[in-house]
Each structure stands twice: as structure tokens, then as C-alpha cells.
């Protein structure tokens, strides 16, 4: 979840997962004082010193699990309390990640898993941008956004079903493009794909006409 402005209320007990681009220690401390938790990635130039080190099992990819204090003049002023510093090497990619959090009780592996879950959300929104053709949201409320996304997902799934049933070679992206420009035309869909017409079962012709002719 992205950082919200300071004026927005933080939910006590909730865990907010964010990219390091949103790291602002003053705002993170406001979140901390509100009783909420955060998990983010540390910047490479962060100035700090170690207060305590917990034992870690390096066979799991965990390199260190430390309690730290910030040393930079502005960062220390913005966040005067201790932070948790978790360093993890992903066994799949070989990349090393450094996480910051004010959640001191969860296992270090859970902190890493929380951030990994955030990446799955990023991939989902990337997929939405690439496939669902949502250029803008018509409403800004939670219900409006969810409704628009679910409608777009439903259309995508229906087109995928049509592609399978009609045995079309065209990609889903191409199908969506063609349907968007021929939406109000009275024509069988096979006419838009002459190369695929011969592979369509003749017995399904009536159903196809019922589906696509208005």
C-alpha cells in the first residue's frame, strides 16, 4: 500500500507495506505513533548504528536481524525511536534486500514475506495496465474503483472464453482491440478473423450469431 498523506488517519495495528521511494522518516514516525506498522526497503546511503542483533538461520536466506538507531541529523530528528533492520538474500534470484520496519515481534521471515506479497500487488496492477485498458478511473471511492476493475476483469475473462470456444488464433489483446471498434456493428465475429473461420465448428454457427449479432 502506498504512503498516504500525514492528515490521513492510520489504522492502529495495520501493517503498511511500501517501496523505498516513499521513505520519509518524519511521516513514518507519525505512522508509528498512531500504533500502526510499516515494512519498507532501506536506502543504500542510510546512516545508522546497530543496537542489538538477534540470532538468524542463514540457511533460510536471512543474513541479519538487527535493532538499529538512525545517526543522520535529519533522519534521527524525524525518527528518534529504534527501528528493525532485516537483511535477506533471496535464494531464487540471488539478490539481497534490506528491510526496515517498526514491527519488532514478527519473525524476520514474515517481514520478508510481507514485502514479497507487496510485489505481487505491483505485478497485478502492471497486468491491469497492460491488459484491461483502464486509462482512468471514473470514480475515486473504493467501491467505484473496485467496480470498474471487476467489470474490466469480467470482460477480459469473457473474451478469453470466446477465444477458446471459437478456436481463434488471435491474441486476447487483438480480440479486445477488434471488439472495441466493432462493438455496435451487426456482423458475425468470424468476419473479423477470416483466417480462423475454417477452424470454427459448423455446428456452433447459430450460437455464435446469437452471441455477436445485436
Keywords:
single chain; 214 residues; Transposase Inhibitor Protein From Tn5, Chain A, domain 1; 6 helices; 6 strands; 38% helix; elongated; disordered N terminus
Structure, explained:
This protein is an alpha+beta fold and 214 residues long. It has helices spanning 25-33, 73-78, 108-131, 142-165, 172-181, 205-212, and strands spanning 15-17, 37-41, 48-54, 62-70, 83-89, 96-101. The chain has a 6-stranded mixed sheet, sandwiched between helices. A hairpin with a 6-residue loop joins strand 5 (83-89) and strand 6.
Question: CA-to-CA gap between the ends?
Answer: 43 Å
Q: What's the total number of strands?
A: 6
Q: Would you tell me the structural class of the helices and strands?
A: alpha+beta
Give the number of domains. 2
Shape: elongated
CATH topology of the largest domain: Transposase Inhibitor Protein From Tn5, Chain A, domain 1
Instruction: Give the H and E element order.
Output: EHEEEHEEHHHH
How much of the sequence lies in strands comes to 15-25%
Question: What is the tally of helical segments?
Answer: 6
Overall CATH class of the largest domain: Alpha Beta
Numbering strands along the chain, what is their spatial order in the largest sheet?
1-2-6-5-4-3
Mean pLDDT, as a whole number? Answer: 81
What's the helical proportion of residues?
Answer: 25-40%
Largest sheet entry: 6 strands, mixed
User: Which runs of at least 5 residues are low in confidence (pLDDT < 50)?
Assistant: 1-7, 197-214
Give me the CATH superfamily of the largest domain. Transposase Inhibitor Protein From Tn5, Chain A, domain 1
The CATH architecture of the largest domain would be Alpha-Beta Complex
Indicate the radius of gyration in whole angstroms: 25 Å
Amino acid at each position: 500500500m502506498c504512503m498516504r498523506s500525514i492528515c490521513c488517519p492510520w489504522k492502529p495495528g495495520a501493517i503498511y507495506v511500501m517501496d523505498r521511494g516513499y521513505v520519509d522518516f518524519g511521516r513514518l514516525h507519525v505512522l508509528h505513533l498512531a500504533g500502526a506498522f510499516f515494512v519498507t526497503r532501506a536506502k543504500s546511503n542510510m546512516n545508522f548504528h546497530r543496537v542489538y542483533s538477534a540470532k538468524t538461520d542463514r540457511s533460510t536466506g536471512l543474513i541479519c536481524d538487527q535493532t538499529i538507531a538512525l545517526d543522520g541529523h535529519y533522519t534521527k530528528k524525524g525518527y528518534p525511536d529504534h527501528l528493525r533492520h532485516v537483511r535477506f538474500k533471496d535464494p531464487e534470484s540471488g539478490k539481497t534486500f534490506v528491510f526496515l520496519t517498526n514491527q519488532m515481534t514478527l519473525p524476520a521471515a514474515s517481514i520478508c514475506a510481507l514485502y514479497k506479497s507487496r510485489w505481487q500487488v505491483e505485478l497485478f496492477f502492471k497486468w491491469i495496465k497492460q491488459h484491461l485498458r483502464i486509462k482512468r478511473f471514473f470514480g475515486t471511492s473504493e467501491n467505484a474503483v473496485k467496480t470498474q476493475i471487476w467489470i474490466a476483469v469480467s470482460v477480459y475473462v469473457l473474451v478469453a472464453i470466446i477465444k477458446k470456444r471459437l478456436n481463434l488464433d488471435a491474441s486476447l489483446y487483438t480480440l479486445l482491440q477488434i471488439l472495441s471498434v466493432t462493438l455496435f456493428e451487426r456482423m458475425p465475429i468470424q468476419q473479423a478473423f477470416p483466417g480462423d473461420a475454417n477452424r470454427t465448428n459448423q455446428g456452433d454457427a447459430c450460437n455464435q450469431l446469437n452471441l455477436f449479432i445485436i
